[in-house]
Design brief:
single chain, about 450 residues, alpha/beta, Four Helix Bundle (Hemerythrin (Met), subunit A), five-stranded parallel beta sheet, 16 strands, binds adenosine monophosphate, binds zinc ion
Length: about 450
């Protein structure tokens, strides 16, 4: 199985540390507002990763975090706190905001049929452990204090530029001096922030006799260390995380303990909508509720995501979503052929070809193109093949493609009898009634076939 590793900028053969168990960490959402269709591309692709690992005989030990503290609006160390912003917007506490949007996120996660991570960890449950990491960094002389927090001295971590291949010279030259005069280097970042006089910050904990809260990256370093141990196999996240968030996670964990954080770093690209960035001001921040209102299910959306590659920048449009919906319906009708007494095919070779694509850096688009070659035909899949499709794509084909009801079957027979008696009026009426139940009849040379309308 091959994966693109951001560390080497190459597609590499995936080799886990342990032969069977694969340790994976995925940076989770900041739970301050509803997730949009852009955010969820990542979780669909990382679900595909887990499924492909399973197909290769691996068992995953996967942790997803929920950021409920410390993420400032700019991703750097300034700007408003995202949780505080959410709380103000809705006139509730930050804890209520966290609860509400965490539940919403998990509901969307389930609606998409994504495999539950082994552990879901909330950042605020790891404050004590965060502070142990801060202590470890302090012992190594890697942090210094400023008036607004404890900062990481990135000049003391020689590998700092590695993951993102940062050009630190240019960063220095381009920095605005007034930005934070207390910082020793432009790239230095807050490990722990102090709550300043007059600052409204509901989530705060005492450390060294002062109140403060963790910097954004600390939670991931801590949770990985606590729950997955030394070096993990795969760390996943969006490409926006490479230069700041993931670079800083590495500096924290590797700086404190001297161990390599992750062997593989995989990053998903961004999606645009109708060619534009997703943003409130453009009014294109679509949630699953919005999709539902327009007649699309979470699985239609998942189908759309799987049609593309995680490393490609993709454009989302409702027209394309509709095409994905049709494609998913075709797969359902392919699966539904199982109930119609037609010949069943042997798709073992198709399955092998699909796996080859998936094992090649998660090429789901290639695998789906292979499926299209057989799914439009007249030959029914075996139960095994439908089960395989569900295991790799999680599109719920087996459960959504049951046999039609006895009532509809009786109507189909009645219609055949009406046709036999040349009562075409009755036959058409019955066909309409059946269509209203969501089942379309197709008359062929071997008799009548049905499909989901
Ligand atoms: P945000 O809550 O806006 O910080 O987004 C959380 C994460 O979702 C980001 O760090 C990205 O990795 C991901 N994300 C946000 N917007 C997009 C997008 N348009 N396409 C893909 N991923 C996105
Ligand atoms: Zn993270």
């Amino acid at each position: 199985m091959k994966l693109y590793n951001t560390l080497s900028r190459k597609v590499e053969e995936f080799e886990p540390i342990d032969k069977k168990r694969v340790k994976i960490y995925t940076c989770g959402p900041t739970v301050y507002s509803e997730a949009h269709v852009g955010n969820f591309t990542a979780y669909v692709y990382w679900d595909l990763l887990v499924r492909v690992l399973r197909m290769n005989g691996f068992v995953e030990d996967r942790v997803l975090n929920i950021t409920d503290v410390g993420h400032l609006a700019s991703d750097a160390d300034d700007g408003e706190d995202k949780m505080e912003k959410g709380a103000k917007r809705e006139g509730v506490t930050v804890w209520q905001i966290a609860e509400k949007y965490m539940e919403g996120f998990l509901a969307d996660f389930r609606a998409l049929g994504l495999i539950e991570p082994t552990q879901i960890c909330r950042a605020t449950d790891f404050i004590k452990e965060d502070l142990e990491l801060v202590e470890a960094l302090d012992k190594k002389g890697l942090i210094y204090e400023t008036s607004d927090g404890l900062y990481y001295d990135t000049a003391k971590f020689p590998d700092y530029a590695d993951l993102a291949r940062l050009d630190l010279e240019n960063l220095r030259a381009g920095a605005r001096v007034e930005y934070n005069e207390e910082k020793r280097n432009v790239a230095d970042f807050a490990v722990w922030k102090w709550v300043r006089d007059g600052e409204d910050h509901a989530m705060q904990w005492e450390y060294r006799g002062k109140m403060g809260y963790p910097g954004w990256h600390l939670e991931c370093a801590t949770i990985i260390h606590e729950r997955l141990g030394e070096t993990i196999d795969i760390h996943c996240g969006g490409i926006d995380h490479i230069p700041v968030h993931h670079t800083n996670e590495i500096a924290e964990l590797e700086g404190a303990y001297g161990t390599k954080m992750a062997n593989f770093w995989v990053h998903n690209n961004f999606i645009t909508i109708d060619g534009q960035k997703i943003s409130k001001s453009l009014g294109n921040v679509y949630s699953f509720k919005d999709l539902k209102e327009k007649g699309f299910s979470p699985l239609d959306y998942k189908m759309w995501v799987l049609q593309g590659h995680y490393q490609s920048e993709r454009n989302f449009s409702f027209q394309d979503l509709q095409a994905a919906q049709v494609r998913l319906k075709n797969y359902k009708n392919f699966a539904a052929l199982r109930w119609q007494g037609v010949e069943r095919g042997d798709f073992r070779e198709v399955r092998e070809r699909m796996l080859k694509y998936l094992n090649n850096n998660l090429n789901s688009a290639g695998a789906l193109a292979e499926l299209d070659r057989v799914a439009g035909g007249e030959i029914a899949p075996t139960e095994d093949f439908v089960e395989f499709l569900d295991r790799v794509f999680g599109l719920g084909l087996a459960e959504t493609t049951g046999d039609i009801s006895e009532e509809i079957k009786a109507k189909i027979l009645e219609r055949a009898r009406a046709k036999g008696k040349k009562d075409y009026k009755l036959a058409d009426k019955l066909r309409e009634e059946i269509l209203e139940e969501g089942v379309e009849l197709l008359d062929g040379k071997d008799g009548v076939r049905w499909r989901y309308a």
